[in-house]
Amino acid sequence: MQQQLSTLSSSPTRSLPLTGASNFRDLGGYTGHGGQPVKWRRLFRSDHLAALTPQDQALLAELGVARAVDFRGQAESAAHAYALPGVARHPLAIEPTVVQRALELQRAGRQLTAQDAVALMQETYRGFVHDNAPRFAALFRLLLASDAPTVFHCTAGKDRTGFAAALILLALGVPRDVVMHDYLLTNALYQRPPGMGSNAPEEVLRVLWRVQEEFLDAALHSVDSDFGGVQAYLVEVLGVDAAAQKELAGRYLQAV
């Protein structure tokens, strides 16, 4: 195990081999402002951390992870609670809405289709931009308070976490096409838990448990059309002004 940890530390890899979390990965290496790469081993994104094995926890300790930002809603957190030695958990609850809306449609006699599911996901992502901005603002305050290695996550690490990762990378000057590439990596990594949502048609589940460009695009289009772009959204809505963005770059971009 020690040899594996040393190898990971000396030769950074984006996806980390955890047994209890399939979508745990590093945001390092992407090129940001001024051609400076995002520092490795500072910012991690993941699915939930309640199933980590002792070996997984040892790997997080080796990586120096000191903070976990948890975007899960109250019921999700209660159902899969965790406490990791040496890791401070910061709950920034964003309640899930897709399942609730899907159930409302079903109660109204509507048989859900994949197209319905895509529309629900897009509506959810627009909600991140408008309704959940305070949670993402709090995330940036944490990142500005300390550059201690941090993991942020929700349940699957794909939607709430995906939008948070996009905001961080965009704030650091990473181009949108690269941000989208990082977002879509979930489809290659995340392993859907068996039996989840088994009452819904498989075509619907394939939408709900994966990510599509249309989802993140819905959020970014809302940022552009409703707020005048990412820069204005960062400053006016999330409170990440020019000085804060400079501080972020100093903390999380590698000087070249």
From TrEMBL:
GO molecular function: phosphoprotein phosphatase activity
SUPFAM superfamilies the record matches: (Phosphotyrosine protein) phosphatases II (SSF52799)
Source species, domain of life: Bacteria
Limits of the Tyrosine specific protein phosphatases domain: 134-204
Biased composition (Low complexity): 1-19
InterPro entries listed in its UniProt record: Prot-tyrosine_phosphatase-like (IPR029021), Tyr/Ser_Pase_IphP-type (IPR026893), Tyr_Pase_AS (IPR016130), Tyr_Pase_dom (IPR000387)
Region (Disordered): 1-30
Name of the protein: Protein-tyrosine phosphatase
Organism ancestry: Bacteria, Pseudomonadati, Pseudomonadota, Betaproteobacteria, Burkholderiales
